[in-house]
TrEMBL record:
The lineage of its organism: Eukaryota, Fungi, Dikarya, Ascomycota, Pezizomycotina. PROSITE patterns: MOSC. Transmembrane segments: none annotated. One of its GO terms (molecular function) is pyridoxal phosphate binding. Residues 156-315 form the MOSC domain. This is MOSC domain-containing protein.
Length: 341
């Protein structure tokens, strides 16, 4: 098995940048989901509300690109006749943000400060989304706690999860629930076969929004990743480098699977992957009404680089059909429950 594709999402819910290599940090891949679009806070709603492709399918019309120097991020609206592009720093200088407004953003119950990127960015997205919108960059220490509510609905506390006992606990930026999302080519092909023949040429995996897409060839069946617990990724460039990946949770999917990314609306009924998968892929007992595709995960050490073509080995699996929740998440939830007493 090997890494087939790598994706970074510089702005949460917009289209990704596909890359040949990506650096691991304690918050996921570098540059991933460090920006977020929000509705400005009001007196009635003091928190900035993040705007998500789950409800705004037209976010799929915004394409992102990173320049060769990795200094500029360009956002392009694929159907715009005017105000077609916006360019912002990929990593804004702290000095340039000294006087910027800061808003608090809550996603699934854990909060992070977001630094406002100014009027030009706000006007660009407000114009295309036809609603007041601000572009925020992750502030503070550049990270957010992992929300326990994503893994267990009755939990409101944050989770402390590490790849192993030698590495620091993981955090996230503006991702929903975990530093990484991993998918496989076997599962991709199963999803593709559910589409009508005329639609099977679609690059279907982009609707699932993974970070790491693993080519499993003919080695395993679709959804084999349901049982993955630990992976080792060996660099094709530096054989001494090994990355440990801990899978956390069978990823329950949302209505973003039904987005027509080319048109910015809901896709035709016979291509709605949410319903097509829900027929037999409701395999997470904690969310029994939602289909599952992929695994939330975390990886380390920080600073290691993943590359397309790197070898992937499953080194540990959960026992039998097991829980949808990895032992690491179960332990983290137990610790938080004990602390709350």
């Amino acid at each position: 098995m090997k890494i087939q594709r790598l994706f970074i999402y510089p702005v949460k819910s917009l289209r990704p940048v596909e890359v040949s290599a990506a650096e691991i940090t304690n918050e996921g891949l570098r540059f991933d989901r460090q920006y977020v679009l929000v509705k400005p806070p009001t007196e009635q709603q003091p928190l900035a509300e993040h705007i998500t492709i789950k409800w705004r399918f037209d976010l799929g019309l915004f394409h992102t690109a990173i320049d060769k120097s990795w200094s500029k991020l360009t956002v392009t609206h694929s159907q715009a006749q005017e105000r077609k592009t916006l360019v912002v720093p990929l990593t804004p200088s702290p000095l340039s943000l000294l006087d910027a407004k800061v808003f608090e953003v809550s996603i699934f119950g854990t909060k992070a400060p977001g630094i406002d990127m100014g009027k030009e960015a706000a006007d660009f997205f407000t114009h295309h989304l036809n609603m007041p919108t601000r572009l925020l960059y992750i502030g503070g220490n550049g990270q957010r706690e992992i929300p326990g509510a994503v893994y267990l609905p009755s939990t409101t506390r944050a989770l402390s999860i590490s790849v192993n006992n030698k590495l620091s606990p993981q955090k996230i930026r503006f991702a929903d629930a975990a530093p990484l999302l991993i998918t496989s080519t076997a599962s991709e092909e199963d999803a593709r076969r559910r589409l009508p023949p005329s639609a099977r040429g679609e690059d279907v995996i982009v609707r699932f929004r993974p970070n790491v897409h693993v080519d499993v060839a003919a080695e395993v069946d679709p959804y084999d990743e349901d049982s993955w617990n630990m992976l080792t990724i060996r660099s094709r460039v530096d054989r001494a480098q090994q990355v440990s990946v801990r899978c956390l949770f069978r990823t329950v999917r949302c209505l973003s699977l039904n987005a027509d990314l080319a048109k910015g609306g809901m896709i035709s009924t016979n291509r709605q992957l949410y319903g097509l998968l829900a027929k037999d892929r409701r395999t997470n007992e904690l969310f029994p009404h939602k289909p599952v595709f992929g695994q939330y995960a975390c990886a380390g050490p920080s600073g290691a680089v993943l590359r397309v073509g790197d070898e992937v080995e499953v080194t540990e699996r959960v026992n039998g059909s097991g829980s949808s929740m990895s032992p690491a998440v179960q332990e983290a939830l137990a610790v938080e429950e004990y602390a709350a007493r």
